[in-house]
Amino acid sequence: xxxxxxxxxxxxxxxxxxxxxxxxxxxxxxxxxxxxxxxxxxxxxxxxxxxxxxxxxxxxxxxxxxxxxxxxxxxxxxxxxxxxxxxxxxxxxxxxxxxxxxxxxxxxxxxxxxxxxxxxxxxxxxxxxxxxxxxxxxxxxxxxxxxxxxxxxxxxxxxxxxxxxxxxxxxxxxxxxxxxxxxxxxxxxxxxxxxxxxxxxxxxxxxxxxxxxxxxxxxxxxxxxxxxxxxxxxxxxxxxxxxxxxxxxxxxxxxxxxxxxxxxxxxxxxxxxxxxxxxxxxxxxxxxxxxxxxxxxxxxxxxxxxxxxxxxxxxxxxxxxxxxxxxxxxxxxxxxxxxxxxxxxxxxxxxxxxxxxxxxxxxxxxxxxxxxxxxxxxxxxxxxxxxxxxxxxxxxxxxxxxxxxxxxxxxxxxxxxxxxxxxxxxxxxxxxxxxxxxxxxxxxxxxxxxxxxxxxxxxxxxxxxxxxxxxxxxxxxxxxxxxxxxxxxxxxxxxxxxxxxxxxxxxxxxxxxxxx
Length: 516
What we know:
The protein is α/β, with parallel strands linked by helices. It has helices spanning 35-41, 49-58, 81-90, 105-115, 123-152, 178-187, 194-202, 207-221, 225-236, 241-249, 284-294, 310-318, 377-394, 422-432, 451-460, 498-515; strands at residues 19-26, 31-32, 64-68, 75-79, 95-101, 300-303, 321-326, 335-336, 350-355, 395-406, 436-442, 468-474.
């Protein structure tokens, strides 16, 4: 197999601290993966298809870099974990390795990071590298500050009658010039701000972007669900570091200087600072206004169909307690529960139930097969009735139920129907469950229609649906308060009996004959 000697590691050239002992062929079973590399860069055996085929055809072109292990006859890998994993899978008996003499654990750690400097890394891997680098550089920065203080107290001498202020100032407070940076890198010396140095080594640009990345990473380590979602989106390339940082900064928009609209039309845009990406997510301002008007401070809110957790995040921002449930939870703080089985016992006595159910079959393809979104029209209406009855028995007297429902206009309509008014169905169900109507608020959808859909609708003379309403109803404080609830339809079927229909038709024909 061909062997190519790798370039010298930057910062170690000509140094006696890291000495190359030449190339040897070693058995893969004698090689041990570095725990640091595994913790920073993950399992080396993942995604090896292309590399494995290359090694199968051409062998290992670049030797692994190893150093003596703690046990006799073993070697710790500094560079080449993925090549080693491929060799194990392919069953190679020996692999080329460059042996290096590494006298200290600190230098070993630095070399592992340096050998991986040019590889393509995820955001998680970059931040794990930053964790390691910060541990090293904090002590170096402390030593530099002490040295600077020492230089600042030196008395003027004949050789230096006018010492400059630059000799005594803290080097962490200034940026190195490009010439100084190049000289320092060549000598393996780190000067300047710690965050600026690490940002350059990680390829993140300046210290400001690095600080934003570290803020996201710290919150993710603390278990913040939105920060964890931001990390995932950065890794997937769907969000930049700056955008994820701005989302986290906007979380307090409903805490300070919140100015609720006094109107019953809530046309708000999406804000990715609340909730995680999820089908059918809603603008968090809708939830915030519902909490402002219909839930007291520190009140208990229940969301039985939590989705991406928008209600949870808004409640946390506005000082409300929240219990969130979903058939298939998308995050750890959402509990698994099927609301068709009723509300859990811990929800009894809540102040507000905020429910954003699937709008019948409008988004059925994005939900699970066992979701209510796949039910028939009759089962969907029956579900609304069951939901409102259970909500009535769960809420405290005077508590509110908020149902966010949109009109169905695009598909799965009964023959002859132009639309289905789900808010109307919810209104009837709530009245029959003995709720009192409080308010119907227009919350138009911002519309996710593509330009070609809009052009086609104009050509066909067809309107695209954006009607959505928040129906708010209240459980009476006293039993006699709803004794005179007006229900626009009888308690039985919505359809007239055959006798009533025939009588009506006969009356209509008689009226028409008289008019002729």
